[in-house]
Design brief:
The protein has no helices and eleven strands. By secondary structure, it is an all-beta fold.
């Protein structure tokens, strides 16, 4: 059974940083993509970033480009999301998800497995 466990969320002041982790387990396929999505109260889910396990290709939403960095440690099956220069509008529950297909886009429907989410709150 595929499991994704997020960690690293918390409360931070605007301008601060957080690093989220997504530990994946329970699968045997070699090529996959991990995506980060977020959902704020009363808003639709939004794609944040994704990374390919095969070649490390990455993609970012315009709203986070230049501030967030996604990376992976394939030996640990763990993906990280370094979030710098955080803004109050980044406040949301952040989810990581796994897809068997990597594309340079953030389409939630392509992701088959989802974590439970971690709360990120940015105070002004």
């Amino acid at each position: 059974e595929v499991q994704l466990v997020e960690s690293g969320g918390g409360l931070v002041q605007a301008g601060g940083s957080l690093r989220l982790s997504c530990a994946a387990s329970g699968f045997t396929f070699d090529d996959y993509a991990i995506g980060w999505f977020r959902q704020a109260p009363g808003k639709e889910r939004e794609g944040v970033s994704c990374i390919s396990s095969s070649d490390g290709s990455t993609y970012y939403a315009h709203s986070v480009k230049g501030r967030f960095t996604i990376s992976s440690d394939n030996a640990k099956n763990t993906v990280y999301l370094q979030m710098n220069s955080l803004k109050p509008e980044d406040t949301a529950v952040y989810y990581c998800a796994l897809s068997r297909v990597y594309i340079a886009a953030l389409i939630g429907g392509l992701y088959d497995y989802w974590g439970q989410g971690t709360q990120v709150t940015v105070s002004s």
